[in-house]
Amino acid sequence: xxxxxxxxxxxxxxxxxxxxxYAARAKMKTVILEKxxxxxxxxTTDEVANYxxxxxxxxxxxxxxxxxxxxxxxxAERVKDGVKSIDFNGDLKVxxxxxxxxxxxxxxxxxxxxxxxxxxxxxxxELTGKGVSYCATCDADFFTDLEVYCVGGGxxxxxEAMYLTKFARKVTLVHRRDEFRAAKSIIxxxxxxxxxxxxxDSVVEEVYGDGILEGIKVKNVKTGEVVDIPASEDDGTMGVxxxxxxxxxxxLFKGVLDMDQxxxxxxxxxxxxxxxxVFAAGDVRQKVLRQVVTATADGAIAAVxxxxxxxxxxxx
Length: 316
Fold this sequence. Notes:
Elements: E1 2-10, H1 14-25, E2 30-33, H2 60-73, E3 77-79, E4 83-87, E5 93-97, E6 102-110, E7 114-116, H3 124-127, E8 132-133, H4 136-139, E9 147-151, H5 155-164, E10 170-174, H6 184-191, E11 196-199, E12 202-208, E13 215-220, E14 226-230, E15 239-242, E16 246-248, E17 278-280, H7 292-314
Parallel strand pairs: 1-2, 1-6, 2-3, 6-17, 8-15, 9-10, 9-15, 10-11
Antiparallel strand pairs: 4-5, 5-6, 7-16, 12-13, 13-14
Helix pairs in contact: 1-2, 1-7
C-alpha cells in the first residue's frame, strides 16, 4: 500500500517523538515508524534526574509515556514497522517498510538512535538474556541477592551499577583502565556505596555456563593474568551487565547519507544532512552530548526545519 505524508520520522525515541510532536502540532501530516516499542534507550532507564522540568523521581518509561501521549494528542500517526529500504533521490522521499508498505514524504527525519555495544567475548551471544544483560532497569530484579558484574567506566556504567545495588548482593565494576571516565560527582557517589567493588585494568575475556551464566573469566590488561570467577555454589548463577557505549543504527543509510568513521550521521546545527529534505536528530547523529535533553531539542529543530523546507520547496 502506498501512503503519502508531509513528514516521515524513522524512530520513536525522544528525538523521534519530539519531532513528531512538533511536526503534528504544525499541522503537517506526520507518521512515526518504529519497529520496537517507543522510547529507545530511555524506555529502559530507571531514573531521569537530569531532564529539565521532569517530575521528582521521574522514570524513563513515565517520560516516554507522556511524550507518546503528546504526539497522539496532536495527531501524529505511529506505526509499528521496520524500514526495509529508502530512496532519497527524488523530491518525494520513498520508504519501504518490512511489512511491504510504501511511504512517500516531502521530508524525512532520521531518528534511529544507537544500540548497546557488545563485549565480543565467547559465550556472550549464547548467554544474552540468560545472565548477560545490557539493561539494568529491564533485568535487575532477576538478580536480587545475587552477585553482579558491571562492565564499563563511563557515566552510564557507574550509574547503572548504583541502581543494581538496590537488587544485587554485591556489584563489581569491571573497567579496562585504572580510573573511571564518569563524572566526578557520580564517582564520589558510587564510592560511598559499600555494595560496590572494583576490578580495574581488567576486561571480561569469556562468559560461560550451561544454559545460564555460571561464571566469567577476567583478564588484567597490565599483567595478562586471567582469573576465573565462578558463581557461588549457593547461587548457581550471577549477572553481567554491559555498559561500554553504543553503535549508531545507520546501516540502512550507508552510501546515501554522510557519516563519520564510527557511523554517526553528519548533520549541521539545523539537523540538515547532505540530502535536502532529509534531517537527522538525536543519538544517531555526530554530536558532543547524547542525552534526552539534546535528543528532544534535535527533534524539535528537525521538525521546524522540515516545515520550512516543505514550505520553500513545495509551496513557494
